[in-house]
Amino acid sequence: MSEGAESAARRTADRWDWAATPLGPVDQWPARLTAAWDLVVDSVVPMALLCGPQLLLLYNDAFADLLGHRHPKSFARPAREVLGRVWSDPLVGRPFEATMHWGTSFLQEAAEIDVQPLSDRDEEHLATFVRAGSPVRDEDGRVLAVLHLAVDTTATVGRSRAVARLATSLAVAVTVDDVCKVVLREAMVAFDALSVTFCLPSPGPSGWRMARRHRVEELSPDEERLPLIWSEVTPDLAALVDEVTAGSDLHVQPGGETVAMPLREGEVTAALVIHRQASAVPRDVLGMAAPFRELVAEALRRAVVYDAERSTAELLQRTLLPPNLPQSDQVSIAARYEPVSEGTVAGGDFYDSFFLPDGRLALVIGDVAGRGVMAATVMGQVRAAIRGAALTDPSPATVMAALDRVVTDLNDLWPASMPLGTTRARPGMSFGGELFVTLLYGAIDPSTGDLQVASAGHPPPALLAGRESRADGIPRGRLMSMDVGPPLGIPGERPVARVRLTVGDMLLAYTDGLLERRGISLEHSEAQLVAVLGAIPPSSPRRVAQFVVDAMLETSGQEDDCAVLAVGRSPAGYRRVAIVVPPLPESVRAAREWARRELDDWAISESDQHTVITGISELITNSVLHAGTESHLSMDLDSGVLTVTVSDSGNRGEPLLTGADPMAVRGRGLSLVKAISDAFGVHRTSAGTTVWFEVEVQPSMAPPVSIRLA
């Protein structure tokens, strides 16, 4: 063999007992085979020779890296034995056999191969290669071996695919959070990053806020859906971002450890900072940065506009909905409002509940047809009119008659230049009968469970039977049988239906956005709702409202805003306590100690107490760090289910967290609460954000104590 730079492969070959192999002593090899081996062993790219009928595998140091844990015992062994299951891949073994038998060459420019047996991983490990094979012939033309080149292009292909995924994902990313999540995920692959930091302007002292993701993080689908946590950047990072965004060029730190790129489109300015292992940045990475930046900057510009419009619309919508619902010792009530994911306009869905002068609890849910500021404004006027009419005379007939007049007047007074549900403009004219409002109005006596309810064009509610009712043969879930009258503004009879809710029973009212889908009949959606109700375990109204909305929208999607109002009879042992928690670090311990005292009074077991207090600690910590306002903490015990609710009035997502741990992972606290509880949910109201969880505990045998909140 020729003289050259000493390599591990050459040293192995020099010590090898070739006489014991089918190839025989090295000095008896054909000259062309010797020349081919010299070419392989001196090459810096992965190359190998597959020699003779057995395809004995001889390879250089670079190829040894591809073999992983199978090197060095693979040297001079049949390739079929070395590669094992990988050899059976049609892209691997078959081309070598064809070259050896027929003398044909092959070239595979993007061969995707599962190399799991070589990588010693449990999961599938796909790698992409440029592979080529050529015959090595003797003077008589007989094929002696196959000269093989294999270059792993997995990283390069992965980067190209990351940009393609980026473009696809950004096309459907509508909010700033959505865009940032996509960029953090795809930049990790595209730039082979250890961590990626997305920086946006902030009113804070540093001028920038950041969201970060690390390679070590493995987020579950639930965690991926959580909002990002934004924190103030450190002074060093702020200085780097200021420098980068002052220009337009890509910043690459000497050694390649940091790559920072400005993102600018119109009025929007941002920066992406990538931290890598110290190594020269590959040329294909630098070439990919330009299209990457353009895609992200344009998507971010759209998202900033969308967020501004949607924030205004949602604020209007939620401000017109009640921030809190009344509770009593005998009746508990909860609501859920879910705006449609597309669009940036408010809707006309609404709900309400309030105590009437005679002690009954009014239940209201309705829908103003159309969307936008107009629908939301009409909704607010109708909701206010309902309260005024019901507090004067709560009978359904009187309330409906009063609202007919209100809707008729609104229809006559509002100009068509602000049309509802239509784009036709008719200056100087009214809605012309196009104002369409549906309403379900009822009143329940908390002491007896007697409920009166009437519908003005609104879907009938559903009933959820408790244990006592099911013992009498009543199904778990069913739609309430009642006559539906004409919508508001159209005079007509709206018969009053009567039903009695026993302890454990629940009434579920909803708007048509929960059921109506294009291409799906209403009967099918109603049957689906009944099936969902039948699958709900014994639960509180809050959990039922969330369960129903999530199950219905997950199955068939969402095409319109929807609202759900759930009210249930509480057992005699119903308990409720609440406190206000200041936004101070020491408040976490104070909240735990308060909860422990209350749970001791309720005779809750030690193990259940541990679960509840752990959850409270995480939620209060989350609120203190990321909301920055006082929190309202409440605990409810109802039929062996303990519900904890933490509400704040902060604006989550803003840069309120300073001095953040750079390795902090968004959602770990909430994920823990979800893992230890039996039910978990997050929703926004006009007052802020509410997070709640439920734990099934043994019912307390102590005398009932209740606190009614305003």
Q: Percent helix among the residues?
A: 25-40%
Treating each run of at least 4 consecutive H or I residues as one helix, how many helices? 19
Strand content: 25-35%
CATH structural architecture of the largest domain: 4-Layer Sandwich
In angstroms, what separates the terminal alpha carbons?
93 Å
- The rounded Rg comes to 34 Å
Mean pLDDT reading = 81
SS-derived structural category: alpha+beta
Q: What is the total domain count?
A: 4
Largest sheet: 6 strands, antiparallel
Shape: elongated
Uncertain parts: 1-5, 416-433, 651-667, 700-710
CATH-assigned homologous superfamily of the largest domain: PPM-type phosphatase domain
Q: In CATH's first tier, which class of the largest domain applies?
A: Alpha Beta
Spatially, the strands of the biggest sheet line up as 3-2-1-6-5-4
Give a count of the beta strands, DSSP E runs of length 2 or more: 27
The CATH topology of the largest domain is Phosphatase 2c, domain 1
GO molecular function, one term: phosphatase activity
Pfam family, one: HATPase_c_2
Keywords: Hydrolase
InterPro entries: Bact_Sigma-Reg, HATPase_C_sf, HATPase_dom, PPM-type-like_dom_sf, PPM-type_phosphatase-like_dom
